[in-house]
Amino acid sequence: MQQRLGICHFIIGILIAANLHSQDDVESNFGVNLQLFGAGLNYELTVDKAFTVNSLVFYEAGFFQGLDGDVRYIATTTFGLEPRWYHNRKRRSDKGKNIAHNVGNYLSGELFYVSDVLSSSNDNRVDIDPGVVVGVKYGLRRNIVDNIHFELAFGVGQVFAQETENYTSPLLDIKFQYILF
């Protein structure tokens, strides 16, 4: 429980610090996301013309095949924080390309907490092992139409779980985002 509170305080502190340094010329945004196996909300706070801090809350699922051959699922809540550097923002702007809602290519750090809050599974022998993932990703966000965006990101992360050994895992984001404001 103390670990969860510590992570929440850390995320809130980063968001407050970033808000104190935010610029008025690029807008922060709040969005609803739909990804391959989950959905969530995000708030991307602009720190300056190329840097943002993206905070996320998602309900994500995974599927696996049991020894009996049946397909099972497991789902849980995740909380994340991604500092992002949009390295091609100026070049996109100079070429007259869209940079609204932080459209562009980015390099991000990733810190997210996999919780057992609201977890569910159709196999009562499977539990969520809460933990923290720290990683790096390269991604792109493209505008489809108006406030709807497509985002693709990939990278690698280190998983620090409570009940299992630490391990390295690939990171992949494929999602559609609707910017509310």
Beta strands, count: 9
Helical fraction equals 10-25%
Poorly predicted segments? 15-25
Distance between the termini: 33 Å
Strand arrangement within the widest β-sheet reads 1-2-3-4-5-7-8-9
Mean pLDDT: 86
| Run of helices and strands | HEEEEHEEEEE
CATH architecture: Beta Barrel
CATH C-level class is Mainly Beta
CATH topology: Porin
Main sheet?
A: 8 strands, antiparallel, barrel
The total count of helices amounts to 2
Number of structural domains? 1
Shape: elongated
Structural class estimated from helices and strands: mainly beta
Beta fraction of the residues? Answer: over 45%
Provide an overview of this structure.
- The chain has 181 residues and is mostly beta strands.
- The chain has a single domain, classed as Beta Barrel (Porin), CATH 2.40.160.
- The chain has two helices and nine strands, in the order αββββαβββββ.
- The chain has an eight-stranded antiparallel barrel with strand order 1-2-3-4-5-7-8-9.
- A hairpin with a 2-residue loop joins strand 1 and strand 2.
- The longest helix has 19 residues.
- The two termini are 33 Å apart.
- About 6% of the residues have low confidence.
Short description:
The chain has one domain: Porin (Beta Barrel), CATH 2.40.160. It contains two helices and nine strands; from the N terminus they run αββββαβββββ. The chain is elongated and about 55 Å long.
Task: Annotate the secondary structure layout.
Layout: H1 2-20, E1 29-35, E2 38-46, E3 51-65, E4 71-85, H2 89-94, E5 104-114, E6 120-121, E7 131-145, E8 148-161, E9 167-179
Antiparallel strand pairs: 1-2, 1-9, 2-3, 3-4, 4-5, 4-6, 5-7, 7-8, 8-9
